[in-house]
Amino acid sequence: MDLQKHLFLIGFMGVGKTSTSRELGRKLDAEEVDTDAMIVEQEQRSIPEIFEQSGEAYFRQMETGTLDKLAGMKPCIVACGGGMAMREENVEKMKQIGTVVFLTATPETIYEHVKDSTNRPLLNGNMNIPYIRKLMEERHPKYKAAADVEITTDGCTPAEVADKIIQAV
Q: Is the pTM of this model over 0.70?
């Protein structure tokens, strides 16, 4: 399958966007990029450092900038940061240049994936299922509105999720 346009993977942190995009890249023989990694490389500092030193609004602006860069690149698989779909502007840009795939999982699954991570500024001091559930509920309508396709990842390996995406698109 030759990618005609970008394939954007969106969803809550820890849902498996990065590991799934790696599998998709392998299966489709396509380049895959991670918007958070693009920002870290450009800024030469970690996401927690960006949040601490420049604030969340600055980081969100950087996310929008990565979409502008991607518009000039050949179609690839894009693992988006968890907050990418929170801005209307970002959703419009993604839809113009690609297909948006919303990966979902239960708060319990997310917790299992992120509980040992120290690289999640929005969960600092709130590494628990009730907080994750609350944040997910707040974000869900925006993810859903942005999505062209929705895929559940609970109990699936990244390879199985990649297969589901390939079938869906």
A: yes
